[in-house]
C-alpha cells in the first residue's frame, strides 16, 4: 500500500497576521493635480484611500528554503507573500481591492473595507505637516472570531521626483513643482494580529514611522516588509508569567502573556474609563452591557473608541460579550446602527446627532464628557445594578490611585527612555490588576449565589428559586440579565466547573461553612451569623412570603418600592459617604525573555540563524532555572517547541511538547501536536516511534480512539412536571429541583408518596410536595431570633425547622430544630429554653441526613393530608428502620473503638467506592489560609474522583474533583505542596495541595501505576512502580526520571523503601533490590506454600522486631518472617472466622488486617487488630456492611466499596493526643 502523504502543517502563528500600506489612489492624485493647476494653490482635498501593498507571512522564498535544505514543503505553502500595486502601466484597469492569487489573506480581514477603517474620518491632503496618529480596530469574521489591528497614519510631502508607491518605475507628475509646494499626503500602515496587543503594536509602529520618515519613497515597501517580517517571527507567548521583549530600536517592546488559559490578553490601560466616567456612570454602562442593550460609544478621538470599549469588556470577564462588536464605524458604515439585535459600536462624536436620530432605543455614551443617554424620546428602562454591590464598587474605585504623575512626584527625572517606560509599565500593571480585582468583585457579589441554584448532574438552573432570593429592588435587573446570551454562557461555564477568575475567587473566599454547604445534600439554611443582616429587611421577608408558594413568579405582583434612579438621563451622583475600601492587590511575579536580534537581508540562512539563536537562549534560560520553578520551565518548553516547529525541526518540537505535557498540561497545545504528528513523513514517524517519550506522547494524544461526541452542554431551566412520573423520572425531577441528591433517599421518598397507590406520581402531588418543602425552607430562613437567644447558639448553627406555636411543660412557644439541638423559642417575652442537644453524634453528615429525613417526612405529611400520611412518612424514618432490623449491628468492642464515620460520597447521587487513602499532616505555609494548613485526608473514589477532608474537623475540605478518568491505585505526599497519584491509566498525576487541581502529569510508565515510595532529602526522590514490573526514580524538583529498571515477571503491586533498599511485592515473590535495581534478596511464595493459587497481597516491615509481615490472597492467616533469615519457615497468625484477607497496615505496635469474615452469621467486612510482639489477635472489629476494606494509617483510616468511612481509636494514646492520633 502506498504511504499516505503527510498533511500540511499550519505553523503556530506569530504576532503578525497581515501588514498593509494604505494611501491615496492614483485617480485621487490626478484629481488633486487638476484642481491645483486650475486654482494655482493647494486646497484640503478629499482623496480615495486604497490598499497599496500587503505583506503576509512567511517571508522566505521557496528558493531560499530549498537552498537551505529546510523541509518547507511539509511545513508551509511556498508562495510570494507580498504584493505592491503597480503603477508603471497607467492604462491598466485599476485594481479593485482583491489581492493577487498568490496572496492568502487571513480570515476576518476584509481588504475592501480596510481602507475606510484605516481612514474612518476620510482622507484629506494637508497644507502643512501633521502629527502622526494611531487608532485601533477590531475585525470580526463570519464565525465571530476577532482579530485586532493597529493603524498608524502619517503624512509625506508629495515631491516631483517620484511617487510614493510607484514601484521600480518612476512616475513623473505633470504639474510644476512650485504649484505643489506645501502639499502633504496621508498614508497609513496597518498591522493585524490575532491578539489584542494594542500598546505593544502601537510602540512597534511608532518605531517604524521614525524609519519611514527618513527613507526615500521607493524604499518604503522594503522597510515595511522588513518590519512585518520581524513581527511574524516573534512567537505568541503562552499563558502564564513569562512576557516577551523585543528590541525594535529605539524602543524595547514588551508583549505580555495572558495570566492563565481562561483569561484574555491585557495590553491596554484599564483605568481609562475611570478617567472618563464617574463610578455611577461606569455601573450604568456595565448594566447596559449585562442586559445586552444596543450600545454606541462616541468620541472625538478614534483611538479612544476601541480602547474604552475593550476596557468595559475586560471588566465583564469572565462573562463574554456574544454579539456584534464594531468599535470603529466610518462615515459609510453608520447604517450599521439600524441593526435590530444587540451590538456594541463606536462612532466619531461628529455623527452623534445623526446617529441619535437614526434609530430608537440606542444607548449613547459620550466618552468626551462622560454622559450616558438614550436615542429615543423616552428614557430606556435600564435597571440599576444591585445596590450593595454598586456602593462597594464605588467606594473601591474611589480608593484607586489613577494618576501616574502622583507616583512620579518624589522621583528624579529619568535619563533612560526604556528604563522610564519599564517603570511606567510596572505602575500600569499594578493598577490594571487592581481594576480587574474591583470589577471581578463586583460581578462576584452580583452572581455568587447562582451556584446555589445549579444542578450539575442534570445541568439545570432553577432561575425562579434564584429570583426569590433577590431583594425586590433588584428583581428587574436579574430578570433582564438572566435572559441574556452572556449569562447563559456564564451558566455553561459554571456547570462545566471551568476554573476561570470567577471560580478562583469563589474558591479563595469560601469559608468552612461554605465548603460544608457545598457538599451537604440538602437542605441549605443560613447560619445564625448570616441571618443577622436579614433581620433589618422586613420588606425582604414580606416579599419572600409572598413568592414562596410557587416557582412561577410571573403570576405574583411585586410590592411597590421607592424608586431607584433607573432613568439614564436622571441619575445623579449618590452620596456614599467618606468611607472607602482600599484595594490592595499584589500582581503575581512575572519574568521576561528577550527575543534575539533578527538579521537582514531576510534570506533563509538569516531566519535559520534566528531560530537557532532562540533555541540557544531558551535552553540557556532553562539551565539557569531553580529546580522548583516548574511554571516558568513549562513556558520555556512551550516557546522552544514552537520555535523548533517554525524551524522545521518537528521531532525536537515534539520532545519539548512531551516535556511540557508532564510539566503543565493546562497550556499543552494538543491540537498543534496532533497536526504536527500528522505532518510527519514516513521516516520521521518511524524515528519518532523509536523514541520512548515520543511514542508515549503519540499514543496519548494522537492514537487514542476518536473523542466521544460532545455531550449536550445546554442549560435547562427547572420546571414543574406536567405528566405522571415513574420512579426514574421522579428521581431526576427531585434532583433537578435541588431538594435532595441521594438516589436512595429519593427512592424512599417515592415509596412514601405512593403508599396505597399506583407506583407513579402525578404532577399535582409533586407540585404540592415541592411547595410544602419550599414553604418550610422559607420559614426557616426568615426566623428572627432575639439576641438573648442567639447568645446560646453557635454562629455556624442553622435553624432547619420551626414549629407552630405549641404549649409544652416548659412553656408556650415554637420548637426550633438546629443541627445541634432542640430548643423552645418562648412567646411573650422571647427567650431560650433548651430541650435537648445532640451531644453524642459527632459526624455532621449523619446529622444532616437525619435532618433531611425529618424535613422530608414533614413535607410528605403536608402533601398527603390523609389519615395514612403519618404511616407514609415513616417510610423515610431510615435510621429507626436500621435500628429495628439490626439492633446489634455493632458489637461492644467495635462500638468502643469506633471514633467517627464519614462519607466521602456526600453530595453525590450515588455512593462511590474508596480506592485509596492518604493522610497529609498540617503545616502553615505563607501562601495558605489558616484553614488550608489543617491536616487532610485524601480519598480517591472511582473513575479518578478525589475528595479531601479536613482531618481536624472531619468536614469536607474539597468536594470531588477529577484526576484523570481511571481508577487511582496509590497516593503519596512528595513534598508539602504536592500529592502524587498513580493511576490505572499509567499516568502519575501531581496535585497542588493549595489549588486542589492537577496541572502536571508524568507519563513515563507503560502500565498501570501501582505504588509510590518517597525518599525525603536533598534532592527528594519518589520511586514509582507499575504492573509491568517497571520501577522509576524521579527527582521531585525537576520531575525527571533519574534511573529506571525492570523486574522480571511483572505483576508488581506495591513498593516500599527501607534502609536504602526497595522492597517490591510482585505477587509471586517479595524482592529486595538496590535503588539501581540490583537484586539483594527474594522471598518466593512457591517455596513456602503448597497452595498453587496463593500470591502475596501486601507486606509490612517491622524493623524494630526485625520482622516481615505478609498477607496472601486466598489465605485466612497472616505470615511473619524474620528479616535475619528469610529462608526460615514463617510464623502463622490465624484469623478466626476470616474467609479472605484484603489489606494490612501497621499501626504503632499493632498490625491491623482488613478482610471478610462472619459476624452474627452474616458475611461482613472485619478488621483484626494483632499485637505485633505477642502475635495474637487482640480485637475483632465489625467494620462495614460490605466485604472489602481499604486501610490507611497516617493517624487516620477509611474503608472501601460502600462509600462510607470509619475512624477508629488507637489504644495507648493519651486524651490530649487523641485529636491527632486516631483512626
Account of the protein in words:
The protein has 1223 residues and is an alpha+beta fold. The protein has six domains: 9-58 and 108-159 and 182-259, Beta-Lactamase; 271-508, Rossmann fold; 596-703, no CATH class; 719-796 and 839-883, no CATH class; 893-909 and 1091-1211, Neuraminidase (6 Propeller); 963-1084, 7 Propeller (Methylamine Dehydrogenase, Chain H), CATH 2.130.10.10. Helix content is 30%, strand content 24%. A hairpin with a 5-residue loop joins strand 34 and strand 35. It is globular and about 110 Å long. The relative contact order is 0.06. Residues 1-6, 65-80, 86-98, 160-180, 533-580, 1193-1202 and 1211-1223 have low confidence and may be disordered. Residues 77-89 have a biased composition (Basic residues). It is found in: Cytoplasm. WD repeats lie at residues 1002-1044. Forms oligomers. Interacts with 6 of the 7 known isoforms of 14-3-3 proteins.
